[in-house]
Specification:
- The structure holds two protein chains of two kinds.
- Chain A is mainly beta.
- In chain A, the strands form three sheets. In chain A, strands 2, 5, 6, 10, 11 and 12 form a six-stranded mixed beta sheet that branches.
- The radius of gyration of chain A is 13 Å and the shape is globular.
- Helices cover 0% and strands 51% of the residues of chain B.
- Chain B is mainly β.
- Chain B is globular, with a radius of gyration of 13 Å.
- The chains are: A mainly beta, B mainly beta.
- At the A-B interface, strand 5 and strand 6 of A face strand 4, strand 5, strand 9 and strand 10 of B.
């Protein structure tokens, strides 16, 4: 079946620290992988995505590389800002359907 | 600009009452989804639709129903609200083709007393 496992939170970092949020997946077929971000009181927004192995998604300084050999899609940012404080969700969409499978979310707080 | 809206944004109701949450999108997307978000569970799929008059059950569909009479709207009905249905509900939509991005509404926070 399809599932996503992501790093438990909460994560607290100082401003300008390096961020990694781990995400691994199990999927049938060839999934697309996504990172969504949820700011307080808002809905989920697409942060980045990758549709095939070795693709790198990037946006707003965040990056994630689709690693088929390790079934991973870890989110990284070199220097976090207070405005990056949010909940981050890893998700996959299988090529056998239009459904998404979400991880449980990782809460990030960045302190000045 | 095209968008997806949900109403109401906040709702308080009593156990046993019927409640309907609205979702409206202006992208002309065929695919629409309802999720609930609870601490420790992330997002769980309630129901989804791939087009007019099509509805499908998701992972946690018991106690919920949907109907799709047009492309733009997918209302979610709680037939007889229970305290276990206190949650934040998100609607999403996506284009036809597989693996395309889902776009989310702002959410409805529901409290069942």
């Amino acid at each position: 079946g399809n599932s996503v496992t992501q790093m438990e939170g909460p994560v607290t970092l100082s401003e300008e620290a390096f961020l990694t949020i781990n995400c691994t997946y199990t999927a049938t077929g060839y999934p697309s992988l996504f990172w969504y971000v949820q700011y307080p009181g808002e809905g989920l927004q697409l942060l980045l995505k990758a549709t095939k192995a070795d693709d790198k998604g990037s946006n707003k300084g965040f990056e994630a590389t689709y690693r088929k050999e390790t079934t991973s899609f870890h989110l990284e940012k070199g220097s976090v800002q207070v405005s990056d404080s949010a909940v981050y969700f890893c998700a996959l969409s299988s090529n056998t359907g239009n459904q998404f499978y979400f991880g449980t979310g990782t809460s990030l707080t960045v302190i000045p | 600009d095209a968008e997806i809206t949900q109403s109401p944004r906040h709702k308080i109701t009593e156990t046993g009452r019927q409640v309907t949450l609205a979702c409206h999108q202006t992208w002309n997307h065929n695919n629409m989804f309802w999720y609930r978000q609870d601490l420790g569970h992330g997002l769980r799929l309630i129901h989804y639709s791939y087009g007019v008059h099509d509805t499908n059950k998701g992972e946690v569909s018991d106690g919920y129903s949907v109907s799709r009479s047009n492309t733009e709207d997918l209302p979610l009905t709680l037939e007889s609200a229970a305290s276990s249905q206190t949650s934040v509900y998100f609607c999403a939509s996506s284009p036809d083709w597989a693996q395309e991005t889902q776009y989310f509404g702002p959410g409805t926070r529901l409290l069942v007393l």
